[in-house]
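Notes to self after the Tuesday call (sharing in case useful).
The group wants a holo model before anyone commits to mutagenesis around the pocket. I volunteered. Ligand is zinc ion. Logging inputs and output together so the record is complete.
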Amino acid sequence: MFRALLTVALSGVLPLSGAVLKIAVLHPLLGDLVRQVGGTQVEAIDLIGPKGDPHHFEPKPEDLKKAEGATIYLVAGMGLEGYLPKLKSVIAGKATLVDVGATLPTLPGKDDDDDHSHSIDPHWWHSIDRFRRATGIVAEALASASPENAELFRKNAEIYRTELDDLERWTRREISKIPRDRRHLATAHAAFNYFCKDFGFTPHPVQGLNLEQMPDPKELGALVKDLKENHIAAIFPEKESNPKILMTLTNDTGIRLGEPLIADGTGGVGYLEMFRHNVAAIVKGLSEHQ
Ligand SMILES: [Zn+2]
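Result:
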């Protein structure tokens, strides 16, 4: 009894037995990455969870309690987490915050504000190249927190990078099945710019950088014209959201609805699985003859 109580009491502050580091992650795909690199030496606490929305998540006191004892907080960065300054002050002196996206090459977000602010597109995980770089960043963060395991973390990172290399080769092979003039990716929110840039697609997002940004009637008209002019084969909804507007668009244009893509890395899938799912759906939607 006493032992059980002790375990419960300690489980909030110490990593599970065997793990050397407790890491809090603010993006589900970083949870997958830190497990790949840290193996049994890390306990990753995914604060957003499989059903969360990384665009609107903000850690509540109970989330921070779950993360108590974490030595590192991993965030995706590039402006995704608006609460970072607050989080930094809460964990100051107790844990290190590692902004994984901070040194990765960025793509601009849509300049959709009147204040002329040029936002950054935060969806860098759809670039395998950036995820490969992130693997090294996470390995070094773990290595400085636990130098005695540094070699192991670097070795795990190297192995995982070869899996990402394989994924990239497979992706290029799959995409080669889509005729060049059909490499147009129409999606719900603007989450796939990094994918499009890396793999030679033209993005046609219906919404803005997050799910609330709906086109006004004028934008919608321009969008329908754009979709028709480019002979878009399919519009892809998301596993996370399938706004009614996509139905309206497919009804109005006769363009078919593709299989849902995983846009924000949620849904409880790992990185490799997410990427394979998306590529398979895109190839299926765009390469078939209609
Ligand atoms: Zn998104």
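Two things stood out.
The mean pLDDT is 90.
The chain has two domains: 16-169, 177-287.
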